[in-house]
Amino acid sequence: MARVEIRGLRKEFEGTVAVENLDLEVRDKEFVVLLGPSGCGKTTTLRCIAGLEEADGGEIYIGDRLVNDLDPKERNIAMVFQSYALYPHMTVYGNMAFPLENARLSEREIVDRVNRTAKLLQIEALLGRKPAQLSGGQRQRVALGRAIVREPTVFLMDEPLSNLDAQLRVVMRAELKKLQKDLGVTTIYVTHDQVEAMTMADRVALLNKGLLQQFDPPRIMYDRPANRFCASFIGSPPINLISCDVRDGGTLDAGDFRIPVPEHLSECVQRTSAQEVILGVRPQDLSVSAGAGTDADGVVLYRFPSSSVPAEIYTTEPLGDSTILDLKVGDKLLKALVGASFEGDAGTKVIVRFPPERVHLFDRSSGLVIR
Ligand SMILES: Nc1ncnc2c1ncn2[C@@H]1O[C@H](COP(=O)(O)OP(=O)(O)OP(=O)(O)O)[C@@H](O)[C@H]1O
Ligand SMILES: [Mg+2]
């Protein structure tokens, strides 16, 4: 069993706190992605687990063993880095056999394992080549192969796909996910790419400034962000965030528009007595329909559904399969994602509805979700 458990991990570099009080439990066979912006402590966390960096505080368990004082090679982990770090003078075969020779496996076992792994990764035809004779994607596979042959209990991967072009990344991302499930090896994978995290992970651990913000399956990260940072880091185009004041416990007043506090949140809003909030709504969740009737003074001429406000299209950004609308509501700009068949150009008057069940509220001072 290869559960990885981190309790209260802390790592500091000359006064810079890279990781602060991190708790993380990765289940056996699980694929966990460490996600976050540059400098948030992802690599440092991984290097502490690998034993390449000494933790300043906290405990790291691999399986049931406390590994803080174990050498990297005693931890039975294999690490794949962004730079593949292949040995340039060795063939693909030599690169893959090297860790096994170091571990003093028999010649027969080495040949067996290398061949089996090469077949799995479909690089059998490349075994005789040197790294310089390989494409980026092929080198990536060899680096993976070198990790897999060792049959470790845990894979640690630090942005292993980031040197590949966009198309190859998409292919490799699916392959790597499939491979991880087939091999059933507990994996901790670092990326700053939210799409990679969302598509590959069983659970995503989102870090910011060395602090864990949320640790949940992708769907929950998207649907139920724990705070304002999580809401804005995940999702594309990014979530709309609008400062609002709560009026009489029942209305969200954004200045340029007002909508009712969603019913399922009204009790929480009253309980927290937060008066200053941030309204969050994803572009995918806003619904846009044509034709708000307003007269020359901006007075709405007919009733429209509740939680809706009149808006004007500022620009459109067609993506082919869908279109991003930039909508002007008073002085505010909101993004909405609509179907490609949506008709309307800059200047068109529309009605924007905030579906109450898809509205998020965050406390403006703490950033924490209100729910
Ligand atoms: N060896 C080091 N010496 C000093 N500071 C370091 C060292 N390694 C990391 N840091 C600092 O620790 C913080 C976390 O760095 P880390 O490399 O873990 O970030 P990251 O999340 O992997 O970022 P990226 O996405 O850019 O790779 C940063 O502020 C970084 O400057
Ligand atoms: Mg890094």
Total count of strands = 20
Overall SS class: alpha+beta
User: What is the count of DSSP helices, taking H or I runs of 4+ residues?
Assistant: 9
Strand line-up across the major sheet? 6-7-8-3-9-10
Sum up the overall morphology in one term: elongated
CATH topology of the largest domain: Rossmann fold
Order of helices and strands: EEEHEEEHHHEHEHEEHHEEEHEEEEEEE
Radius of gyration: 25 Å
Instruction: Give the oligomeric state.
Output: single chain
CATH class of the largest domain: Alpha Beta
**Largest sheet geometry:** 6 strands, mixed
Q: Based on the structure given, which CATH architecture of the largest domain is correct?
A: 3-Layer(aba) Sandwich
CATH-wise, what's the superfamily of the largest domain? P-loop containing nucleotide triphosphate hydrolases
Distance between the termini: 37 Å
Low-confidence stretches: none
Structure at a glance:
With 371 residues, this protein is α+β, with helices and mostly antiparallel strands. Helices cover 25% and strands 33% of the residues. The protein has helices at 42-50, 92-102, 107-120, 136-148, 166-183, 194-200, 218-223, 228-233, 263-272; strands at residues 4-13, 16-26, 31-35, 57-62, 65-66, 77-80, 154-158, 186-191, 203-208, 211-216, 240-247, 251-253, 258-260, 276-281, 287-290, 308-318, 322-329, 332-339, 349-353, 360-363.
